[in-house]
Specification:
Elements lengths: L1 H50 L18 E4 L3 E4 L4 E5 L6 E5 L17 E7 L1 H4 L9 H13 L4 E7 L5 H15 L3 E6 L5 H4 L2 E4 L2 E4 L6 E4 L2 E4 L5 H11 L5 H24 L3 H7 L1 H16 L3 E6 L4 H14 L3 E3 L1 H9 L14 H17 L7
Parallel strand pairs: 5-6, 5-7, 7-12, 12-13
Antiparallel strand pairs: 1-2, 3-4, 8-9, 10-11
Helix pairs in contact: 3-12, 4-9, 9-10
């Protein structure tokens, strides 16, 4: 009896000290092999996306802009970071450009306020900022050169106030700050009609990035980039954001499909309602109030207000032009000029990032120059 118990005990000891370590070593080897395989596959995908970036761009909320290009502002959400210098590359590797912000907080050269020159102040969003092109190729720089050739190299300047992500309310607010400083004769607003959602949920500052204000409580910084999470608990939210930083996760794929689904849904809604006058009136009610404020601000400082409709459609553009005509703001739609390029199969924007390329900016500058000249908006002195 005792011998049997001793035998069983010795067998158990043998299993514990011999068999169990063997199983543990086997499981460890398998786990390490799987981990190494996943890491290798993750790195392979990331390296592959350098050459094929359009297959799966990262779902992060910083956009193409480098971190700290902007600084927070209590009233406007954010401003450009004065004296900031960086390189900017979008997720699709379609451009690699130089970004320099002046001490005046503009993507522009320094303007001497003491100089007696004819100034045009042009305000807008990323199109006016010149997203994707060098400063000299941006439409305001091209337009400025055309105006200088027409009216004299030393007699005219364009104050370039383009800030990515800005909505009309932010543009009017910033205009009220800048117009007494620069004292322009003409103010051009680059208006993007399709981005009226920025009036309801404006973009703002978060960890050095530009983000939608309604997502502030859902964003986490991971390896210098922003990722979202639906988890209300901060710990689980951070963990979810970390997981989304990697490509081999269900969270990443789910976020990708959700983004595409919402994009298609938004496009379908716009297509179904775009011909309805009631829909357009309701959609642009807040915008029209801001355009009235824009006009009054300009006239208060003896400046001529001008509106350029950046990238929309003829139905929506005509609806806005009718309103601006009634309140006395000269307005130009760029749609016909880009339609002509499209009909000729001439690309005027990047394939994935829909901002204008150099051709688009050159086309916009030529159209605006003709508009200003034909309407005798620039005073020949």
């Amino acid at each position: 009896m005792i011998e049997d118990l001793v035998s069983k005990f010795l067998i158990l000891v043998a299993k514990y000290y011999i068999i169990f370590p063997m199983i543990l070593r086997l499981v460890t080897k398998i786990s390490i092999s799987i981990l190494i395989g996943l890491i290798f596959l993750e790195l392979t995908i990331r390296v592959g996306l350098i050459f094929l970036p359009n297959l799966m761009p990262p779902i992060q909320f910083g956009g193409a802009h480098p971190r700290n290009l902007i600084i927070p502002d209590k009233e406007l959400g954010y401003l450009l970071n004065p004296n900031f210098h960086c390189k900017e590359t979008n997720d699709y590797k379609e451009y690699h450009i130089d970004i320099k912000i002046s001490s005046q907080g503009l993507r522009d050269y320094e303007h001497e306020l003491s100089k007696d020159v004819y100034r045009i102040l042009a305000i807008g969003d990323s199109y006016t900022f010149g997203e994707g092109v060098e400063l000299n190729d941006a439409y305001l720089s091209v337009l400025e050169e055309k105006l200088k050739n027409e009216y004299g190299q030393k007699n005219i300047e364009i104050i370039k106030v383009g800030i990515p992500g800005y909505g009309t309310k932010q543009e009017v607010g910033l205009l009220k700050r800048l117009i007494p400083i620069f004292k322009p004769k003409v103010v051009i607003m680059g208006l993007l009609p399709q981005e009226t959602i920025r009036l309801e949920t404006p973009y703002t500052y978060c960890y050095g990035y530009i983000v939608e204000s309604n997502k502030l409580n859902r964003l986490y910084l991971v390896s210098g980039k922003l990722y979202s999470s639906r988890a209300k608990n901060r710990f689980w939210g951070k963990l979810d954001a970390i997981i989304k930083h990697y490509y081999l996760t269900p969270q990443f794929m789910q976020a990708r499909f959700k983004y595409l689904r919402n994009k298609l849904k938004k496009h379908k809604t716009e297509s179904e309602n775009i011909t309805s006058a009631d829909y357009l009136k309701q959609k642009h009610a807040s915008l029209f109030a801001l355009l009235q404020d824009f006009k009054e601000t300009c006239l208060l400082h003896n400046a001529q207000p001008i509106i350029i409709l950046i990238d929309s459609n003829p139905i929506e553009d005509n609806f806005i032009i009718q309103f601006t005509k009634d309140i006395g703001i000269p307005t130009l739609s760029l749609y016909p000029f880009f339609k002509e390029l499209s009909d000729k199969n001439i690309p005027y924007h990047f394939s994935h990032d829909k901002h204008w390329n150099a051709t688009g900016h050159k086309t916009a500058a030529s159209a605006i120059f003709k508009f200003l000249s034909s309407n005798n908006i620039i005073e020949k002195d």
